[in-house]
Amino acid sequence: MKKIFAYLIFIFATLCTSGQNSNPQSIVFKVKSEYRTFCNIDKISIPEFQYFTEAYQLINIRKVFPHVSRPTTLTNKFGNTLVDLSLIYRADINKPSPNTLQICRTLKNSGWFEYVEQKNTHQLMFLPNDPGIMNQYYLASIHAYDGWDISKGDSTIVVGISDTGFDFTHNDLLGSVAYNASDPIDNIDNDNDGYIDNYRGWDLGMDDNNPQIATTADHGLFVSGIVGARTNNGVGISGVGCNIKILPIKTTNADNFITHGYESIVYAATHGCSVINCSWGGQITDGQFGEDVVNYATYNCNALMVAACGNSNNNLPLWPASYRNVMSVSATDINDMKANFSSYGWNVDISAPGDAIYSTKPNNAYSYSGGTSFSAPMVSACAAIVKSYFTNLSALQIAERLKVTADNIDALNATYAGMLGNGRLNLFRALTDIDMPSIKYDSPQFSNNRPTVGDTVSFNANFTNFLNPTEHLKISFSLVQGNATVIDSIISVAPLLTFQSYNNNDQPLKFVVSSNAPNSELVFKLTYTDTNYVGYEYVQLYVSQNYLNVDTNNITTTFTGNSRLGFADNYYHQGNGFKYMQTNQLFYMGGLIIGKNTENVSDNIYGESSFDNDFENISNPVKVASSTIADYEAVTQYNDNGAASNKMNLEITHHIYAWNQPECNDFVIHSFTVKNAGTTPQTGLYIGMYADWDIYISAYNKAKYEPSSKMIYAWSPLGGKYGGISALSPLAVNKYAFDNDGDALSLKISDGFSGIEKFTALTSNRDSAGYSGNGNDISTLLSYPQIDLLSGDSITLNFALVRRKYTSRP
């Protein structure tokens, strides 16, 4: 018994540092009837029990009901079993910040007690006196009222609001800001942090100390009200954060575009924010730069990042929400259904109400709005309250606490099961339901990252337990999307302590790629089960031979087997896009467009409501061994059979060439051999290369055609780089520079790019775009006109895709 007990003491000593606050500090337990002879009013004489009392510093042991006797019979006259209260005891714990639930579990495992539980302190139910609370259904949905009875948060815990700014004059936000007393407004950088007079946050977009919103950009004010409206002040609404403070960080420039999103994350993390709310994002990954910023906030500063997953009603990932160390939040409605606008996906961590949300507006007003932008701050506010209650938890532990205590809503959302995170946010459970582990994987490895049909692939990862110890952990591996057969699906894991990890190198999970899997995405579900715990995560693998990454010179790009430039898929997962010297992604997408009239247009770029898929792969891209032409050469083939009745029976052989000599470092060449594989002549064809550029800030781009080089190029007036397409074949060209929003009489393609618009652009000439103001969101199309192909004929047309730095603006 002493040997077993010594082990239990070791377990407890290890776990006690996991970080629970000092409430509650009492336990209640019931001694089993067979140990009755050892029980007195204020003492239990069970052998070895003294070791527990000493180890856990249990004091004031006494019967809870000393005047209640043991029943003399087992049942009453109606046959109901009588309750014995005579063996119930209470004990206080005279130890700083004990892990009360772990003590209960260890005592229960001794075998002497029927149950051992924490003794809770109860309060009167808190109902704020804010008159607008009747419009805030979401407070009941996330169990905020019950949660506030446990903790109302602490004013020392700060949520950073990375957004469009704040309203310092709003009556319901007076007292919400975490002011920086170390740097009062006196035109001196008193705290030597590089920001002069950042007493009340900072405006990174304008680089000054006034993060006050513009009247037309009140998004940040609405977000701030959800977190930080003063609760129980008799004014307006109740902020979810109750007593939590906020730090306003304005990220937008004078035109209200987010220009300093990631910079704001670092500012928040280095200025005392425990939680950082980012109700913004983009569909193109911000690459290693974004990941570095996220990980800096998480690891270096122990700040939890929370971000909106998007409002596109699809499963396209949004960044920064999709980074591994960011809590990605989707939106629900009043009935716990997915909000009709909310995005979803395997990367989502948790859901929160986002439909018909009531919050603060300018001029001391309030209004309703909707979006995942307003779901995220609810999660941020609850994370801050959890941080204030469990003071020693790390940022990632707080995230896991919120996830494992969320209410599963998959049954209500069967179509989106697994893609709304672990469930809908529940503050009360996050503060009280704490006797669970939480497993999360990192460093995932497939034995083959580009498997082919029939390959057997192994998967292993590090699995870390972030919360309470596991007892009988099992990890199961199942396929939820794609075509593969799992052959090794379950592993058992020895008990894991808090922050202890296990790598399944000795028990790899395995699957076989099915014959109908090429060019598809496999999604596997990792299910973690233990006593009173079920959790899950997803891992993805792309089974695609439909692209090759090219990194031969200063340009990094991807060569695809379906005519697209930079990315092989609709979701921008498969490929590197188009980068110069490994800079941030400056290219949205592009591809080949061929048309002969408004009905017969073939391409694989975006259309009116989704992507067109007219070109179908015939042979996957392969690198040409020992190329006699270039340092890197690859080739693929596709046809336009996907256009169905509108196909032109074209077959395209597509080469890419790259060189690593200094004079050739800044371009790659795309060569298209277009063959008429049908029996009918194809006359009057227009064959062009399209590109949608996002250089630095997409809304500040310009485009221009340069006749001497037959190049149409794009750049940002803010500086950096330019990108262009040049026609290399000795033929006439058409060129069209788009203002995507239709400005200055351009074709408008921001609302969809129809076949009519594509053919119109192929056959027209517009030499410049983005010349209104500081620029615009722009695209370019360069095409060879009036190509005639008899049956069996072919023509080879060459384009160069160019990118380089410039020292002066074109």
Word description of this protein:
It is a single chain. The chain has a 9-stranded antiparallel β-sheet, with no helix packed on it. A 7-stranded parallel β-sheet has the order 8-9-7-10-11-12-13, with helices on both faces. Strands 27, 29, 30, 35, 39 and 41 form a 6-stranded antiparallel β-sheet that branches. It has 810 residues and is of the alpha+beta class. Helix 6 (219-228) runs parallel beside helix 9 (372-389), helix 7 packs parallel to helix 8 and helix 9 (372-389) crosses helix 10 (395-404). The longest helix is centred in the middle third of the chain and has 18 residues, at 372-389.
Could you tell me the number of beta strands? 42
Outline the low-pLDDT stretches: 1-24, 805-810
Compute the gyration radius: what is it?
Answer: 31 Å
Q: Which shape, going by the Cα principal axes?
A: globular
Q: In this structure, how is the largest beta sheet organized? A: 9 strands, antiparallel
Give the CA-CA distance, first to last residue. 83 Å
Q: How does the helix and strand content classify structurally?
A: alpha+beta
The whole-number mean of residue pLDDT values reads 90
Output the strand order for the largest sheet. 31-32-33-34-42-38-37-36-40
- Portion in beta strands: 25-35%
Blueprint of the fold:
Layout: H1 2-15, E1 26-31, E2 39-40, E3 43-44, H2 49-55, E4 58-63, E5 88-93, H3 100-109, E6 113-118, H4 137-141, H5 144-150, E7 158-163, E8 202-203, H6 219-228, E9 245-250, H7 261-270, E10 275-278, H8 287-300, E11 304-308, E12 326-332, E13 350-353, E14 357-361, E15 365-369, H9 372-389, H10 395-404, H11 427-432, E16 439-446, E17 456-465, E18 473-481, E19 484-488, E20 490-493, E21 501-503, E22 509-513, E23 520-530, E24 533-543, E25 547-550, E26 555-560, E27 564-565, E28 578-580, E29 587-595, E30 601-603, E31 616-623, E32 632-639, E33 650-658, E34 667-676, E35 682-693, E36 702-706, E37 711-715, E38 721-727, E39 734-739, H12 755-762, E40 768-769, E41 778-789, E42 794-805
Parallel strand pairs: 7-9, 7-10, 8-9, 10-11, 11-12, 12-13
Antiparallel strand pairs: 1-5, 1-6, 2-3, 4-5, 14-15, 16-17, 17-21, 17-22, 18-20, 18-23, 19-22, 23-24, 25-26, 26-28, 27-29, 29-30, 29-35, 31-32, 32-33, 33-34, 34-42, 35-41, 36-37, 36-40, 37-38, 38-42, 39-41
Helix pairs in contact: 6-9, 7-8, 9-10
